[in-house]
Structures are given as structure tokens and as C-alpha cells.
Amino acid sequence: MKVLPKQSVSMYTRGSSTSQSVRVRLDADVYYPDAEGTFPVLLMRQPYGRAIASTVVYAHPVWYASQGYIVVIQDVRGRGTSEGEFKLFENEIEDGFETVNWAASLPRSNGKVGMYGFSYQGMTQLYAAVNRPEALKAICPAMLAPDVYHDWAYENGAFCLFANLGWAIQLAAETARLKGDESAFLELSRAAKNLPLSDRIPARPELMQKFAHYDAYYQTWLDRSEPTDSYWQKLTVDVSAIDIPMLYIGGWFDTYMRGTLRSYLSSKQAHLIVGVWAHLPWGRKVGAIDYGANAVSFCDRAQIRWFDHWLKDKELNDSPVQLFEMGSNKWRSFSKFPRSNQTTLHLCSTGLAGMDDRDGQLKDQVSEAAIDVIVHDPWRPVPALGGHVAYPCGSFDRSSIDARSDVLTYTTAPLEADLHLIGESIVEVYASSNSLSFDLCAVLSEVKPNGSVMNFTQGYLSSDRPELSLCQIPLQPTCICIPKGSAIRLSLSGACFPAYPVNAGTGAKPGEASAIDFQIITIMVYTGEAYSSKLHLNLQ
């Protein structure tokens, strides 16, 4: 089907709660099919300039319009050419509700609206659905985290430094550009290519303080470090209260995979697609591994089938859950997210798990008691490599990192049969520290027969309990087949920088911790019968 030239159109929404009489103009591009009749509307609301239209992962709106849809790409408040002040997520419930109703009334609309988009554009779908506009019939939220504190800003109490700071600089630079502040734009653009991580307070760069008037959220996220803060409650969406069909899309190496999966599990009517992808792009190679042609995204066609069903009453034959299994490099289909069978491996050691990778083992049985020691030096923190929190994301050979003496490794014997892992595994470690606070990073890898060590999932914990206690570290959800002959390795360290801030050891929050006060931190990890540290694997 041919498509007419795009049209630029505007709508008006209410101003802030303190000035309801003010009308704010929101601008959009509209793509119409070149055909007679009325059509459903597909809406995307995004903050990056509507000409981009999320084409970093999706087909261009022209393609969606050619499938028989009116496609609307709108700049959210304060972005692109839309009026108003951009405040991260804060206006999207009301603006989204009004936009859906406006889109449903466009010329040649049949009154049915669907929404699609990933990341911020995924969140705008959920916010638009909160007040239940009648015209909104189905959505396709991808790579998002409705619990903004736990699954976006922080992970297990640790501030997601690299992701948060990089995004904040990008948004601040765009605000400077829209304001015509060229010097600020250029300074922020340079910082985006080389993140400022060496200031007096490393997690609070002077750059962000200098351009605080362009910062949509970063300082707030640093300062509001408690999940009970009312700020987080206002931004968080209760997905279980939204009763419309949702097709979720995620990636095993995406920063927000935890939120995507939890969202799906809380939804009343939902399908799920999870590829091997990072946040972007959605291709066949992630990190150092080429997962084959099957790994390439088919989400454009899947979304059209989804919308054809809910907006055009066509039959839908897609499996409710489609998961890409790494290792076998195949898609697996399920009627719902599969329940897993948990198996437990015990951390066993001679006390030298940081000195020789043959001294730390993962076994079915508990071994004699031992204490492994991590000495975390803030001058040379263990670096981030791949995973879901660093750039580039994905799987890399981390054998050189595992050779460091401040990284403990525990490895199984070579597997005697293929092992299928699915879902969220958990590390339980008994640990203590000589400092007021410490961090633990846990990485699971496949140790191949050739000696390469390829990470496939990880998790992080920031603790202010230095006394001997049980530390629980949930790992990023995954789906992988570890083949016969390979082994599984758990690596533990006291840092993963710059994915997360270096822990000062003083108990100070990242936004307050001065680099000159950073301490060397000693962390003791206990194994054996009295304090049996464990790895709980979810098997399929």
C-alpha cells in the first residue's frame, strides 16, 4: 500500500497543575495510507525529535503506514518542537491520555488507537494507559521499567552510574540545543563521548552541576536514593491495574530487562518476545558473539500482527511467549513464561579463589569451611565488561579480568550434558567487611573448552551492613544453553566500574562520596557448612 507525504500537525494539552488555563502545543508527524476508507492509528510519543521515530530499532513510520495504519509520531512536552518544559516522565500520564483521544479523532481515523515504542517511548505507553482512554485498544511496550527506582535508576541498592549519567548528558545536550545554547551543547556533547568520572565527587560531575538548569533528572535521582521517597511512587506504574492487551519486547542484555519481565508477569493480557539484544540495536551480534541470522529482530512484523488482531479483528497465531535461547541460538515458544526448576550449587574453596581459578569450585555438596578475601582498591577498581550495564553490552571474554587477585572465581567441572538455564538466578553469599559499606558484583560465565570465559548474566549489590550477613544478588534474567564440555563460573568482585559508582567504604551515598575519602575495602566471603554461600540456578 502506498503512503501519502507526511503531515505535521499539532494538538493542545493542559499546562502544569499550577496553570491549568495555559494550553501547551504538542507537535506530531502523521503518515496516512494512500487509500480510501478509515484506519486505526498507531501512536508513538518520544523525547528525541520525532524525525528519528525510533528507527534505531524499528522500521520507519512509512512502512507501518503502508500496512494500513495512520501513524502518529509525537514530540513529548518540551522536546522537539513541542511547547512546555520537559520533566522526565512527570507529564506523560495526562499528556498521553489527551494525545490518545486526539489521535482517535484525526481525519480518517476509525477511533481505535495502538501504541508502540521502546525505552522512554515504552514508558509513555504505560503512562497513557493509566487513566484508561477508551480509544486505546492495545500497546507494544519494549525495554522499559515501570518501577523506575528498582529497575531503572538503581539495581539492588546500587546507582546505575554509567546508564544514568550517559542518558542525562544526552538529554541535557538536547535541551541546550533547543534553547540555542551552543557552548553548552558542545561541552555536553564532548562529555557524552568521554564521561566525566574523575571529579571530586565522581558520581556528581561538576559538568552536571554547571548545567543543572538543563538537567531533567540526574541530580534528583542521586539525591533521592531511598525507594520509599514519594518521588519514585509518582513515577512508578502499577501495571496490574492496566487491563489492555500488551505485547512486551525485551533483550537479555538490555539494561531494563528486569523491569520488562516483571511488567509482563504482572500484566493481565500480555505476550512476550525476548531476543538476545542489548538496548540497541536489535541484531545478530551482541558483544563478541554472533548469534546467527535467527537472532535478527522480527518485531516490526510481530507488532503488525499484534495490532492487526486487536485493531482489525484479524486472527493471531503467534505464540504468547517467544524467547531466544543463547547457545543453541534458536527461538523457543511457550504458552507463558516457563516455570523453572531450581538447583543449588555451593561455593567451595581452599581460601585461594582469588589467586588460582582451580581453587574455587561450584559443587553439589558443601565443602570444608574457608574464607576468601577480596581487597578492593579504589585506585584500580574491577572494570565493567559487557553484560547489561556497560557499553558495549553483551558477552565478551573476561578471562583477563578473572585473573585479577581481587576477583574470586568458582567454577563447575565440565558439564556432562547440555544445561538449559532460564529466568532469574540468585547468588547468596555470606560476607563481611572492615568498612562501613561495600559492593559485590556477581557474574556468571560459560568457560569454554578453549579457555575463553564468556559472561552471560550478572547482578550487583550495594550494602551498608559490614557485619557478617547473607547478601542476596539477583542476576539478570537469561535464557541460555550451556553445552556439554563447557563449565559455569561465578565471579565475585567489589566493583564494576563505571557501570556502578566505586563504593567509598565510608557509608556515604554516591552523590556525597568524595574521591579523596575513598577507602581500601576488605571483603570476606565465607564458604562451608556454617556459612554456606550458594548459587541458585533456574533450569528449564
What report would you give on this structure?
It is a single chain. This protein has 540 residues and is α+β, with helices and mostly antiparallel strands. It has three domains: 7-142 and 238-334, Rossmann fold (3-Layer(aba) Sandwich); 151-232; 341-539, Sandwich (Jelly Rolls), CATH 2.60.120. Helices cover 20% and strands 31% of the residues. It is built from twelve helices and 27 strands. The protein has helices at 61-66, 92-104, 120-129, 148-153, 161-178, 182-193, 206-210, 218-223, 230-235, 257-266, 299-312, 399-402; strands spanning 7-14, 23-31, 39-46, 70-75, 109-118, 136-142, 154-155, 158-159, 246-251, 270-275, 285-286, 289-290, 321-325, 330-334, 341-349, 360-363, 370-376, 407-411, 419-423, 426-433, 438-447, 453-463, 469-474, 478-482, 487-493, 521-527, 534-539. The chain has a ten-stranded mixed beta sheet, with helices on both faces. Strands 15, 16, 17, 20, 23, 26 and 27 form a seven-stranded antiparallel beta sheet that branches. β5 (109-118), α3 and β6 (136-142) form a beta-alpha-beta unit. α2 packs across α3 (120-129) and α5 (161-178) runs antiparallel to α6. It is globular. The mean pLDDT is 96.
